[in-house]
Amino acid sequence: MYNKMSGFSDEINKDVDIQFTVLNKLGIKYFEPRGINGTNVSDLTLDEAKALKEKMNEYGIEVSSIGSPIGKIQITDDFEEHKKKLIHTIEVAKILGSKYIRVFSFFIPDEKYAEYKDEVLRRMKEMTDIAEKMDIMLLHENEKGIYGDVADRCKEIFDFVNSPNLRGVFDMANFVQCGETTYPYAFNLLRPHIEYMHIKDALYSDGSVVPPGYGDGKVKEIIAELKASGYDGFYSMEPHLGSFEGLAALELTDEMEKLPEGGEGTFTLAFNTFMKILEG
C-alpha cells in the first residue's frame, strides 16, 4: 500500500482512540487532525497537544498535516486575533511533528472578489511571512466560498505570495462544487503548486459528495497524472459521506461487503474505492 495515506479520521468518530483503532485496522499510518475528542485541533492547549502526541505514539500514528480552520473567516473579520491563532496552531503543529498546516483564503461577502483581492493577498502574504519565520509550510485549500475557490484565483495567490512556505492542497470535490473543470484545466494550471491531495469526489448536478471515482472530479485521470509524474506526497481521505444519499445503492457491491456501520463504514468505503484507483 502507498505509504503516505492519511485522512480526516474525525469523520470516523470524535473519539481519538476509535479514530486511531480504525486507522490501524486499515493500515493507514497518518492522520490529518481536525476534531480531537470534539475539540478543533487549533484550539488544543499545548499540554493537550502533548497528550495527543503521546496517544499517537501509542498507536503508531503520525500527522500528515494540521487540518486547521485558519483563513476560514470573513475577510472583514479581525485579522490580528486570527494571526495569534495561526501562531498557536504552528506551535501545536510542531508538538505533533507536522511540517504542514492547511489554510484558507477567507470568505468573501456577496462574491465581491475584485473588491477584496488586495486584502486577501496582503493577509496571505502576512500569514506566509509568519510561517517562514516559524519554519512551517502552509497549504492553501480550494474551499468553496473563499477567495481561492477556483483555480485562477488560487494561482493569483501563489503567484503573489511567491514563497516555498505556501503551497497547495488540491481538492477535487470542492472544485466540482464550484463548477470548475478539475481536469485538465484546474489540475494543469495548479500542478506546479500542488503539494498535497485531499481525496473526495462530487457531482456537478447537485454538488453531492460521492466515493472517489463515482463523481465528476476526474479522480482516476488526476491520480494517473500524479503517478506518472512521480508524486510522492500525501493522499488524505476526506469522505464527507455521512449524508451521501446514494450510499444504499452500493450495498450490494463489493465496496459495501462486511463494512461496519456509521462513520467507520463510510470512511472505509471511501478508502477502499480510492485504493482500487491508486493501485489499479
Tally the beta strands.
12
**What would the principal axes of the Cα set say about the shape?**
globular
Q: Main β-sheet, in a few words?
A: 6 strands, parallel
- Over all CA atoms, what is the radius of gyration? 18 Å
Tell me the distance between the termini: 12 Å
Q: Give, in spatial order, the strands making up the sheet with the most strands.
A: 1-12-9-8-7-6
List unreliable stretches of 5+ residues: 243-247
Q: Which structural category fits the helices and strands?
A: alpha/beta
Number of helices: 9
Order of helices and strands: EHEEEHEHEHEHEHHEEEHEH
Strand content bin: 5-15%
Oligomer: single chain
Mean pLDDT reading: 93
Helix content: 40-55%
Task: Outline the structure in words.
The protein is globular. The chain contains 9 helices and 12 strands. A hairpin with a 2-residue loop joins strand 3 (35-36) and strand 4 (39-40). The chain is an alpha/beta fold and 280 residues long. The model is unreliable at 243-247 (pLDDT under 50). Strands 1-12-9-8-7-6 form a 6-stranded parallel β-sheet. A two-stranded parallel sheet has the order 2-5. Strands 3-4 form a two-stranded antiparallel ribbon.
